Amino acid sequence: MRPFRIDIPQEALDDLDRRLAATRWPGELPGTGWQRGVPLGYLKELAEYWRTGFDWRKAEEHLNSFPQFLTGIDGVDIHFLHVRSPEPDAVPLILTHGWPGSVVEFLDVIGPLTDPRAHGGDPADAFHLVIPSLPGYGFSGRPQEAGWDTARVARAWAELMHRLGYGRYVVQGGDWGMPISLQLGLADPAHVAGVHLNMLATFPPQDPAEFAQLDEADRARLQFAMHFEQDGAGWRKIQSTRPQTLSYGLTDSPVGQLAWIVEKFKEWTAARAAPEDAVSRDRLLTNVALYWFTASAGSSAQLYYESNRLDTEFIRTWAGPWPLAAPVGVAVFPEDAVRPVRRWAEGILPTLTHWSEFDRGGHFAALEQPELFVGDVRTFARRVR
């Protein structure tokens, strides 16, 4: 375990400023809004704010206020935050982000989860937090060989928790954190006390009769999934098949990287007019800047190639079933990009013991609705402590 501190060289900040100022902008079909992608006027204004208004050093200082480490696992350096609770009986909890997220997703929930006493909560709900960056993401190393799929990441997480001395722990994740957390429950059943998800994929069963059992709300979720697959899955197809080709443009152009990420914060959240309706502009840019400064556009996309490239791999990665020994809890946020059907969830999660449905929030739950996220994690964990 080697202590780690973020320290982006000033030359990298100066280079970013020059690149943003020299952006070669495309044209735009008038009146289309967000329908065909990120609007030109919005992105110009956001890029200018990134160049002249956003304070990376302030964001860097905030990130560095939490203990961070690197450790080599299976040939890759894993970066992680390790924030221990002041409560002696705190339960270890590992939080896993997805794409296009990062450890930045969890900054607003670290305090309440580790020190509930200081945040108006019950000290019995305290957690020791482990928040790793996925391999190829952020400050984690880039795998130098093929085969780093979700199951392999889960095995690395099990080793990480073992090295930290945690004999029994709770697992939480959304997006890529969903299959990784479930795989971790399968890989380390002797030590995983429970798995909490803020996103769950439920695929239609093969029996057509099952569709007749759906109520109006579930039929709407199924209709949303069908539309999303038709209209909203382009990024997944590209990253799952040609991540290297994509990486050249996103690694060379900060505005390209910005647009590629910010689009998802508009489409997958409760945002109405702009992503900032759901996530603060500075927090959004902190996340984008982390991808930019670490040049991880291409390496982060490799997880898609490893786990999603063919339809068979996609289904194997996301569909289940998940015969875990540990209890599983699911939090459903209404504006998420993935909206599960509970009836189908019960068929793939035999240990499903907790199900919450909220009236607000989307894909990046810890960022959008930190209080709801914290409350649901606490409620679930009380069952397994």
Characterization of the model:
The protein is an alpha/beta fold. The protein has helices at residues 10-21, 40-52, 56-64, 110-114, 150-163, 177-187, 216-231, 234-241, 243-252, 254-267, 281-293, 297-308, 311-318, 342-348, 365-368, 370-382, and strands spanning 2-4, 68-73, 76-83, 91-96, 127-132, 169-173, 192-197, 328-332, 352-357. A 9-stranded mixed β-sheet has the order 1-2-3-5-4-6-7-8-9, with helices on both faces.
Radius of gyration equals 20 Å
As residue ranges, the low-confidence spans are none
What is the count of helical runs? 16
Mean pLDDT: 97
The N- to C-terminal Cα distance equals 27 Å
Short description:
With 385 residues, the protein is of the alpha/beta class. 44% of the residues lie in helices and 13% in strands. It contains 16 helices and nine strands.
Structural features:
385 residues; alpha/beta
